[in-house]
Amino acid sequence: MTRPVVGVFCNHYMLNDEYPVHAGGTMNSDAVSVVSGCIPMMVPTDPDYITVDELLETCDGFLFTGGRPNVHPEEYGEAATEAHGDFDRARDALALPLIRACVERGQPFLGVCRGFQEVNVAMGGSLHPEIRDLPGRMNHRMPPDGTLEEKFELRHTVSFTEGGVFHELMGAREVMTNTLHGQGIKTAGSRVVIDGVASDGTPEALFIKDAPGFTLSVQWHPEYEADRDPVSRPLFAAFGEAVRAWSDGRKMNPAQVA
Helices then strands (H, E): number in the chain? Predict the structure, then answer.
């Protein structure tokens, strides 16, 4: 039996500072393939190459990955400053309408780091350009030096809403996560439910209220060692179950099979 397909959002990079590429971390593909049980399909994040409608018909679900470029503040009605960092307007142009379409269709997606922020902006929310500059907030960025293991080490707790979606999924009110982000949610978008926060109050987990499909998104990076981490594994496993359910429903829909 063919596994369902998850569109894994890539980011734009310059290879050797001169050759433009779309690329994504292999840990994203590992998590989707090994834990979610789906085929990871890399998406070139530019509407010049692929449309939202084409993606909706090609893929069964989507992983909105992390990445260095940030969502452009014009997408939430603010002017860009140096603190906002680098941008990828092509990814904005594809990801934001795709998220809104998935919410309405019930097509499953999982948002991670930048993807978490994209979900909030797509639903009308806004972002802080730099969390660590806010009073009482910790530095959520990765350590500038060290090994990959040191960059992705567990660094702070995330507390979930009692009896909420993440509490039920994880089987715990509080978990330890890594943290590798500079920006964060300022105002929650319409229907965005903040279901988990760091010890300094930074939003870390969300879902979309009354959405007919899987919309869980997190600010940390659960793709790192997803097959072994007790927080990452149930998240990607649940996502895989939702994608398979969508795929099975699509196959049983005569209008789409014809």
Answer: 8, 13
Edge-to-edge strands, sheet with 109-112: 39-43, 5-9, 61-64, 109-112, 217-218, 203-208, 192-198, 156-160, 174-177
Rounded CA separation 141/149 (Å): 15
Instruction: Summarize pLDDT for 78-110 with one digit per residue, the tens.
Output: 888 777 778 899 999 999 999 999 999 999 999
Q: Are 172 and 181 in contact (CB under 8 A)?
A: no
Instruction: Give the start-to-end residue ranges of the domains of the chain.
Output: 5-127+188-194+201-257
The single residue listed with the structure tokens 């014809």 is 258
Beta bridge partners of residue 42, listed in sequence order: 8
Q: What is the pLDDT of residues 203-243, one digit of tens each?
A: 999 999 999 999 999 999 999 999 999 999 999 999 999 99
Phi/psi of residue 246, each to 5°? Answer: -65, -45
CATH for 5-127+188-194+201-257 is: 3.40.50.880
CB neighbourhood size of 18 (10 A): 6
**How far apart (Å, rounded) are the C-alpha atoms in residues 205 and 158?**
8
